[in-house]
């Protein structure tokens, strides 16, 4: 029996006792951190970092972290994010290692929680409007994002625009009969909401729908040339970055009220509480300006589909926050 134990011990010594292989030990010793590493709480984390971008100066942090993925860990540590906060960040489902440098910079500046830091960066609150532009080429998901960072390609036009039945394009003598358009799915949902509103004595009408790329370009350029770029950016979206270009946004009013005052009239609360059942959200709500980068608009609805609309309604999320939590 003693001989068996002896041979087992010898085999363990030869193969290298402990959690590290001979090669890993050599790597740790070469970095001068084997003494700390052998007593680590999370040796698996150290091993993961060894197979990636291992930096010995962070050995204690590696030991303290429970790492499932090494993505962005060194960047966060290098950016001065405390180990406890790093752990909270990498544990979140909406953490993206590719954004680690921005997470670190935002945390250092704002000292917010891991949750708040990640959501702020995921929704581009750390960037200046129009400082980066990502082109959107797929429009099959009605909840896709178009804002001051995500743009439709030049000349984009939805392939399935349909005329809206319940409209009022305001003229000098009241409503005109100009045609407005939405994409087929959004249009169908809007008409269902209009029909339901009638049962509540609400005559909901569209006052604006789809706008072309060229229309928005002309609108922004005219105002920029007349009043300056800052003014144009404050009040008008740039071409390709207007939600109206998607064919999924509709401005509304009801019962002949001024569109920019509808929140003051009886019946608006029904719209707020029921639009999600038809797939719509209030795109630019109050107290969300830092997220949407637009002022409050009580009249601007966006079709995103029932599932996303329900989630946004229940969690009080903007569309940016919906995607920022993915």
From TrEMBL:
Q: Domain named D-alanyl-D-alanine carboxypeptidase-like core: which ranges?
A: 180-306
Which ranges does the record mark as transmembrane?
none
Extract the InterPro entries matched here.
DD-CPase-like, VanY-like_core_dom, VanY/YodJ_core_dom, Zn_M74/Hedgehog-like
Q: Which domain of life is it from?
A: Bacteria
Family matches, as SUPFAM superfamilies = Hedgehog/DD-peptidase
What is the protein name stated in its UniProt record? Answer: M15 family metallopeptidase
Q: Which organism is it from?
A: Absicoccus intestinalis
């Amino acid at each position: 029996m003693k001989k068996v134990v002896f041979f087992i011990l010898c085999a363990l010594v030869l193969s290298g006792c402990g959690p590290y292989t001979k090669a890993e030990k050599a790597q740790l010793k070469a970095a001068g951190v084997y003494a700390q590493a052998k007593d680590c709480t999370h040796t698996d984390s150290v091993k993961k970092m060894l197979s990636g971008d291992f930096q010995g100066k962070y050995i204690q942090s590696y030991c303290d972290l429970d790492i499932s993925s090494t993505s962005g860990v060194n960047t966060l540590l290098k950016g001065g994010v405390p180990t406890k906060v790093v752990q909270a960040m990498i544990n979140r489902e909406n953490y993206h290692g590719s954004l680690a440098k921005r997470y670190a910079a935002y945390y250092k500046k704002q000292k917010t929680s891991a949750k708040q830091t990640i959501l702020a960066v995921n929704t581009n609150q750390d960037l200046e409007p129009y400082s980066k532009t990502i082109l959107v080429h797929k429009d099959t998901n009605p909840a896709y994002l178009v804002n001051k960072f995500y743009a439709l390609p030049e000349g984009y036009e939805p392939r399935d625009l349909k005329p809206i039945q319940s409209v009022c394009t305001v003229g000098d003598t009241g409503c005109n009969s100009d045609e407005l358009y939405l994409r087929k799915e959004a249009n169908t949902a809007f008409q269902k909401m209009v029909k339901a509103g009638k049962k509540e004595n609400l005559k909901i009408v569209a006052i604006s729908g789809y706008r072309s790329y060229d229309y928005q370009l002309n609108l922004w350029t005219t105002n920029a040339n007349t009043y300056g770029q800052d003014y144009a950016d404050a009040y008008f979206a740039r071409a390709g970055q207007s939600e109206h270009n998607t064919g999924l946004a509709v401005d509304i009013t009801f019962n002949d009220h001024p569109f920019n005052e509808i929140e003051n009239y009886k019946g608006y609360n029904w719209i707020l509480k029921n639009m999600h059942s038809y797939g719509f959200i209030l795109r630019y709500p109050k107290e969300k300006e830092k997220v949407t980068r637009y002022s409050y608009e009580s009249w601007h609805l966006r079709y995103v589909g029932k599932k996303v609309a329900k989630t946004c309604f229940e969690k009080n999320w903007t569309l940016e926050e919906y995607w920022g939590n993915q």
